[in-house]
Request: fold
Amino acid sequence: MQIGELIAYLETIAPPSYQEGYDNSGLIVGDSSIELKGVLISLDTIEAVVDEAMELDCNLIISHHPIVFKGLKRLNGKNYVERVVMKAIKNDIAIYAIHTNLDNVYQNGVNAKIAEKLGLQNTRILAPKQAFKKIIAYLPLEHSETTQQLLFQAGAEAIHSFDQSAHVSFAGNKKNLVRMEVRCPTALKGAVLSALNSATKNDVSFEVLSLENYNEHVGSGMIGDLAEPTDEKAFLEFLKNTMKAGVVRYTNLRGKAIGKVAVCGGAGGFLLNHAITQKADIFITSDYKYHEFFDADGKIIIADIGHFESEQFTVDLLYDIITNKFSNFAAHCTKVYTNPVNYL
Ligand SMILES: [Zn+2]
Reply:
Protein backbone atom coordinates (compact mmCIF):
# COMPACT_ATOMS: atom_id res chain seq x y z
CA MET A 1 0.00 0.00 0.00
CA GLN A 2 1.26 3.47 -0.88
CA ILE A 3 1.57 6.31 1.59
CA GLY A 4 -0.98 8.22 -0.47
CA GLU A 5 -3.70 5.67 0.29
CA LEU A 6 -3.46 6.31 4.02
CA ILE A 7 -3.36 10.06 3.44
CA ALA A 8 -6.45 9.88 1.23
CA TYR A 9 -8.30 8.10 4.04
CA LEU A 10 -7.21 10.63 6.67
CA GLU A 11 -8.41 13.38 4.38
CA THR A 12 -11.92 11.92 4.31
CA ILE A 13 -11.93 12.50 8.08
CA ALA A 14 -10.15 15.86 8.12
CA PRO A 15 -10.34 17.38 4.64
CA PRO A 16 -7.38 19.69 3.92
CA SER A 17 -9.77 22.43 2.81
CA TYR A 18 -10.87 22.79 6.45
CA GLN A 19 -7.44 23.99 7.60
CA GLU A 20 -6.94 27.60 8.63
CA GLY A 21 -5.23 30.03 6.28
CA TYR A 22 -2.00 30.19 8.31
CA ASP A 23 -1.67 26.42 8.51
CA ASN A 24 0.49 24.04 6.49
CA SER A 25 -1.27 20.71 6.89
CA GLY A 26 -0.58 18.05 4.29
CA LEU A 27 2.39 16.04 3.03
CA ILE A 28 5.34 18.22 4.04
CA VAL A 29 8.19 15.85 3.22
CA GLY A 30 8.16 12.78 0.99
CA ASP A 31 6.45 11.19 -1.95
CA SER A 32 2.93 9.83 -1.62
CA SER A 33 3.62 7.00 -4.09
CA ILE A 34 6.21 5.37 -1.80
CA GLU A 35 5.30 1.97 -0.35
CA LEU A 36 4.22 2.39 3.28
CA LYS A 37 6.29 0.36 5.74
CA GLY A 38 5.04 1.70 9.05
CA VAL A 39 3.56 4.81 10.65
CA LEU A 40 4.69 6.74 13.69
CA ILE A 41 2.17 9.18 15.19
CA SER A 42 3.25 12.23 17.13
CA LEU A 43 2.01 15.64 18.21
CA ASP A 44 5.24 17.32 17.05
CA THR A 45 7.98 16.23 14.67
CA ILE A 46 11.24 16.84 16.46
CA GLU A 47 14.55 15.14 15.63
CA ALA A 48 14.06 12.49 18.31
CA VAL A 49 10.80 11.50 16.63
CA VAL A 50 12.56 11.06 13.28
CA ASP A 51 15.17 8.90 15.05
CA GLU A 52 12.39 6.85 16.60
CA ALA A 53 10.77 6.37 13.19
CA MET A 54 14.08 5.03 11.86
CA GLU A 55 14.43 2.62 14.78
CA LEU A 56 10.88 1.35 14.29
CA ASP A 57 11.31 1.11 10.51
CA CYS A 58 8.47 3.56 9.94
CA ASN A 59 8.73 5.61 6.76
CA LEU A 60 5.81 7.92 7.55
CA ILE A 61 5.44 10.27 10.49
CA ILE A 62 1.95 11.60 11.04
CA SER A 63 2.24 14.74 13.10
CA HIS A 64 -0.47 17.02 14.41
CA HIS A 65 1.73 20.13 14.23
CA PRO A 66 3.41 20.83 10.88
CA ILE A 67 7.19 20.97 11.23
CA VAL A 68 7.27 23.62 8.49
CA PHE A 69 4.89 26.57 8.79
CA LYS A 70 6.49 29.11 6.49
CA GLY A 71 8.91 29.11 3.59
CA LEU A 72 12.27 27.47 4.14
CA LYS A 73 14.93 29.46 2.32
CA ARG A 74 17.92 27.38 3.31
CA LEU A 75 18.57 23.83 4.40
CA ASN A 76 21.85 23.89 6.23
CA GLY A 77 20.79 22.45 9.57
CA LYS A 78 21.15 25.65 11.61
CA ASN A 79 17.80 25.19 13.36
CA TYR A 80 15.68 22.25 14.42
CA VAL A 81 13.18 22.67 11.58
CA GLU A 82 15.88 22.36 8.93
CA ARG A 83 17.54 19.47 10.75
CA VAL A 84 14.26 17.54 10.97
CA VAL A 85 13.52 18.06 7.28
CA MET A 86 17.07 17.11 6.25
CA LYS A 87 17.11 14.01 8.42
CA ALA A 88 13.72 12.89 7.13
CA ILE A 89 14.73 13.34 3.49
CA LYS A 90 18.09 11.62 3.97
CA ASN A 91 16.37 8.62 5.52
CA ASP A 92 13.39 8.39 3.16
CA ILE A 93 10.88 9.28 5.85
CA ALA A 94 7.75 11.17 4.84
CA ILE A 95 6.11 13.69 7.18
CA TYR A 96 2.41 14.37 6.97
CA ALA A 97 0.74 17.03 9.13
CA ILE A 98 -2.95 16.92 10.07
CA HIS A 99 -3.40 20.08 12.07
CA THR A 100 -6.21 22.65 12.03
CA ASN A 101 -8.23 20.52 9.63
CA LEU A 102 -8.34 17.91 12.42
CA ASP A 103 -9.12 20.68 14.94
CA ASN A 104 -12.04 21.83 12.84
CA VAL A 105 -14.05 18.64 12.36
CA TYR A 106 -16.84 17.65 14.70
CA GLN A 107 -16.39 13.90 14.40
CA ASN A 108 -13.04 12.33 15.21
CA GLY A 109 -11.48 15.74 15.77
CA VAL A 110 -9.08 17.08 18.39
CA ASN A 111 -11.83 18.73 20.41
CA ALA A 112 -14.12 15.72 20.23
CA LYS A 113 -11.31 13.75 21.89
CA ILE A 114 -10.94 16.33 24.67
CA ALA A 115 -14.73 16.35 25.14
CA GLU A 116 -14.68 12.55 25.36
CA LYS A 117 -11.93 12.63 28.00
CA LEU A 118 -13.92 15.15 30.06
CA GLY A 119 -17.16 13.20 29.64
CA LEU A 120 -19.04 16.00 27.89
CA GLN A 121 -22.50 15.28 26.54
CA ASN A 122 -24.69 17.07 23.97
CA THR A 123 -21.59 18.38 22.27
CA ARG A 124 -21.58 20.80 19.38
CA ILE A 125 -19.02 22.93 17.59
CA LEU A 126 -18.42 26.17 19.50
CA ALA A 127 -17.84 28.36 16.43
CA PRO A 128 -19.14 26.69 13.26
CA LYS A 129 -17.68 27.82 9.94
CA GLN A 130 -19.27 28.86 6.70
CA ALA A 131 -18.22 25.74 4.88
CA PHE A 132 -20.69 25.16 2.07
CA LYS A 133 -20.38 25.70 -1.66
CA LYS A 134 -23.20 26.35 -4.07
CA ILE A 135 -22.79 24.99 -7.56
CA ILE A 136 -24.93 26.31 -10.37
CA ALA A 137 -24.68 24.22 -13.53
CA TYR A 138 -26.14 24.44 -17.01
CA LEU A 139 -26.27 21.11 -18.76
CA PRO A 140 -28.07 19.39 -21.61
CA LEU A 141 -31.52 18.11 -20.72
CA GLU A 142 -30.65 14.53 -21.70
CA HIS A 143 -28.01 14.34 -18.94
CA SER A 144 -30.12 15.85 -16.21
CA GLU A 145 -31.36 12.68 -14.56
CA THR A 146 -28.00 10.91 -14.39
CA THR A 147 -26.33 14.10 -13.28
CA GLN A 148 -28.82 14.61 -10.48
CA GLN A 149 -28.21 11.07 -9.22
CA LEU A 150 -24.45 11.30 -9.40
CA LEU A 151 -24.38 14.69 -7.69
CA PHE A 152 -26.43 13.38 -4.80
CA GLN A 153 -24.20 10.33 -4.54
CA ALA A 154 -21.18 12.62 -4.35
CA GLY A 155 -22.71 14.44 -1.38
CA ALA A 156 -24.61 17.34 -2.95
CA GLU A 157 -28.11 18.39 -1.95
CA ALA A 158 -30.59 20.21 -4.13
CA ILE A 159 -31.24 23.89 -3.60
CA HIS A 160 -33.39 24.61 -6.60
CA SER A 161 -36.03 22.16 -7.79
CA PHE A 162 -35.09 20.63 -11.10
CA ASP A 163 -38.47 21.00 -12.71
CA GLN A 164 -39.09 21.66 -16.38
CA SER A 165 -39.69 25.36 -15.78
CA ALA A 166 -36.05 25.64 -14.85
CA HIS A 167 -34.99 24.92 -18.45
CA VAL A 168 -33.21 27.65 -20.30
CA SER A 169 -32.09 27.63 -23.89
CA PHE A 170 -29.57 30.05 -25.24
CA ALA A 171 -30.07 31.73 -28.59
CA GLY A 172 -28.22 29.87 -31.32
CA ASN A 173 -27.80 26.84 -29.11
CA LYS A 174 -30.01 24.01 -30.21
CA LYS A 175 -29.67 22.14 -26.94
CA ASN A 176 -32.22 22.50 -24.23
CA LEU A 177 -30.22 23.38 -21.15
CA VAL A 178 -31.24 22.65 -17.61
CA ARG A 179 -30.12 24.87 -14.76
CA MET A 180 -29.29 22.93 -11.61
CA GLU A 181 -28.44 24.38 -8.24
CA VAL A 182 -26.94 22.24 -5.52
CA ARG A 183 -25.00 22.85 -2.34
CA CYS A 184 -22.35 20.67 -0.75
CA PRO A 185 -19.89 20.85 2.15
CA THR A 186 -16.75 22.64 0.95
CA ALA A 187 -14.72 19.48 1.39
CA LEU A 188 -16.89 17.65 -1.16
CA LYS A 189 -16.65 20.30 -3.84
CA GLY A 190 -14.03 18.36 -5.81
CA ALA A 191 -16.05 15.13 -5.73
CA VAL A 192 -19.25 16.91 -6.75
CA LEU A 193 -17.57 18.74 -9.62
CA SER A 194 -15.98 15.56 -10.92
CA ALA A 195 -19.39 13.85 -10.74
CA LEU A 196 -20.83 16.78 -12.67
CA ASN A 197 -18.17 16.57 -15.36
CA SER A 198 -18.41 12.82 -15.75
CA ALA A 199 -22.24 12.73 -15.79
CA THR A 200 -22.36 15.36 -18.51
CA LYS A 201 -19.24 14.12 -20.32
CA ASN A 202 -17.84 17.61 -19.72
CA ASP A 203 -20.71 19.18 -21.65
CA VAL A 204 -21.51 21.57 -18.85
CA SER A 205 -20.95 25.15 -17.69
CA PHE A 206 -20.93 25.86 -14.01
CA GLU A 207 -20.06 28.38 -11.37
CA VAL A 208 -19.15 27.82 -7.73
CA LEU A 209 -20.08 30.26 -4.98
CA SER A 210 -19.44 30.27 -1.23
CA LEU A 211 -22.58 30.18 0.89
CA GLU A 212 -23.03 32.15 4.10
CA ASN A 213 -24.71 29.23 5.91
CA TYR A 214 -22.88 27.71 8.84
CA ASN A 215 -21.91 24.07 8.71
CA GLU A 216 -22.49 22.67 12.20
CA HIS A 217 -19.96 19.89 11.57
CA VAL A 218 -17.02 22.14 10.79
CA GLY A 219 -15.47 24.82 12.97
CA SER A 220 -13.47 25.68 16.05
CA GLY A 221 -13.79 24.49 19.62
CA MET A 222 -16.53 22.43 21.21
CA ILE A 223 -19.12 22.93 23.91
CA GLY A 224 -21.05 20.38 25.91
CA ASP A 225 -22.53 19.52 29.30
CA LEU A 226 -21.19 17.57 32.22
CA ALA A 227 -23.39 14.65 33.27
CA GLU A 228 -23.99 16.53 36.53
CA PRO A 229 -23.18 20.04 37.68
CA THR A 230 -19.87 19.82 39.55
CA ASP A 231 -18.25 21.99 42.18
CA GLU A 232 -15.71 24.34 40.59
CA LYS A 233 -12.69 23.24 42.60
CA ALA A 234 -13.56 19.57 42.19
CA PHE A 235 -13.87 20.05 38.44
CA LEU A 236 -10.49 21.81 38.24
CA GLU A 237 -8.89 18.88 40.09
CA PHE A 238 -10.57 16.45 37.72
CA LEU A 239 -9.39 18.54 34.77
CA LYS A 240 -5.79 18.59 35.98
CA ASN A 241 -5.71 14.84 36.53
CA THR A 242 -7.58 13.83 33.40
CA MET A 243 -5.54 16.07 31.10
CA LYS A 244 -2.30 15.24 32.94
CA ALA A 245 -1.61 18.94 33.27
CA GLY A 246 1.61 20.04 34.98
CA VAL A 247 -0.26 23.15 36.02
CA VAL A 248 -3.71 24.65 35.48
CA ARG A 249 -3.78 28.45 35.35
CA TYR A 250 -7.31 29.66 35.96
CA THR A 251 -9.23 32.85 36.61
CA ASN A 252 -11.34 33.66 39.69
CA LEU A 253 -13.95 31.12 40.65
CA ARG A 254 -17.54 32.33 40.46
CA GLY A 255 -19.14 30.36 43.28
CA LYS A 256 -21.28 28.51 40.78
CA ALA A 257 -21.27 24.82 39.83
CA ILE A 258 -19.76 23.86 36.46
CA GLY A 259 -22.37 22.44 34.08
CA LYS A 260 -21.50 23.70 30.62
CA VAL A 261 -17.92 23.35 29.40
CA ALA A 262 -16.26 24.87 26.35
CA VAL A 263 -12.96 23.48 25.09
CA CYS A 264 -10.42 24.22 22.41
CA GLY A 265 -7.21 22.25 21.99
CA GLY A 266 -4.18 24.49 21.46
CA ALA A 267 -4.38 28.26 21.43
CA GLY A 268 -8.11 28.89 21.65
CA GLY A 269 -8.29 32.36 23.18
CA PHE A 270 -10.02 33.74 20.09
CA LEU A 271 -13.08 31.68 21.04
CA LEU A 272 -13.67 33.22 24.47
CA ASN A 273 -16.64 35.32 23.42
CA HIS A 274 -18.29 32.32 21.78
CA ALA A 275 -17.90 30.41 25.05
CA ILE A 276 -19.38 33.31 27.06
CA THR A 277 -22.27 33.88 24.67
CA GLN A 278 -23.14 30.19 24.75
CA LYS A 279 -23.16 30.28 28.55
CA ALA A 280 -20.23 28.01 29.24
CA ASP A 281 -19.22 28.03 32.90
CA ILE A 282 -15.60 27.31 32.04
CA PHE A 283 -13.44 27.65 28.93
CA ILE A 284 -10.56 25.19 28.75
CA THR A 285 -7.74 25.95 26.35
CA SER A 286 -4.07 26.99 26.34
CA ASP A 287 -1.54 29.70 25.45
CA TYR A 288 -3.29 32.42 27.44
CA LYS A 289 -1.32 35.62 28.15
CA TYR A 290 -1.57 37.60 31.38
CA HIS A 291 -3.80 40.41 30.08
CA GLU A 292 -6.10 38.02 28.26
CA PHE A 293 -7.06 36.35 31.53
CA PHE A 294 -8.80 39.60 32.57
CA ASP A 295 -11.30 39.05 29.76
CA ALA A 296 -13.00 36.36 31.84
CA ASP A 297 -14.45 39.39 33.69
CA GLY A 298 -16.55 37.33 36.08
CA LYS A 299 -18.58 35.86 33.22
CA ILE A 300 -16.71 32.57 32.89
CA ILE A 301 -13.67 30.75 34.25
CA ILE A 302 -10.74 30.55 31.84
CA ALA A 303 -8.58 27.50 32.48
CA ASP A 304 -5.25 27.24 30.66
CA ILE A 305 -3.99 23.65 30.88
CA GLY A 306 -0.97 23.95 28.52
CA HIS A 307 -0.79 23.48 24.77
CA PHE A 308 0.77 20.02 24.70
CA GLU A 309 -1.51 18.83 27.49
CA SER A 310 -4.64 20.00 25.73
CA GLU A 311 -3.77 18.12 22.54
CA GLN A 312 -1.80 15.12 23.77
CA PHE A 313 -4.65 12.66 23.21
CA THR A 314 -4.69 13.56 19.54
CA VAL A 315 -1.98 10.91 19.16
CA ASP A 316 -4.36 8.23 20.49
CA LEU A 317 -7.14 9.63 18.35
CA LEU A 318 -5.04 9.28 15.18
CA TYR A 319 -3.86 5.83 16.23
CA ASP A 320 -7.47 4.67 16.60
CA ILE A 321 -8.54 6.27 13.32
CA ILE A 322 -5.72 4.48 11.47
CA THR A 323 -5.84 1.07 13.15
CA ASN A 324 -9.63 0.83 12.97
CA LYS A 325 -9.33 1.05 9.20
CA PHE A 326 -5.98 -0.59 8.33
CA SER A 327 -4.19 -3.67 9.60
CA ASN A 328 -1.65 -4.20 6.82
CA PHE A 329 1.11 -2.04 8.28
CA ALA A 330 2.41 -1.25 11.75
CA ALA A 331 1.25 1.91 13.51
CA HIS A 332 2.99 3.28 16.59
CA CYS A 333 2.37 6.17 18.96
CA THR A 334 5.57 8.03 19.73
CA LYS A 335 7.21 7.42 23.07
CA VAL A 336 9.11 10.68 22.79
CA TYR A 337 7.78 13.39 25.11
CA THR A 338 7.77 16.28 22.64
CA ASN A 339 6.47 18.97 25.02
CA PRO A 340 9.08 21.77 25.01
CA VAL A 341 7.68 23.13 28.29
CA ASN A 342 8.72 21.80 31.70
CA TYR A 343 7.19 22.52 35.10
CA LEU A 344 9.05 22.90 38.35
ZN1 LIG B 1 -1.53 22.68 18.78
User: Anything to note?
Assistant: The mean pLDDT is 94. Residues 65, 266, 307, 311 surround zinc ion (CB under 6 Å).
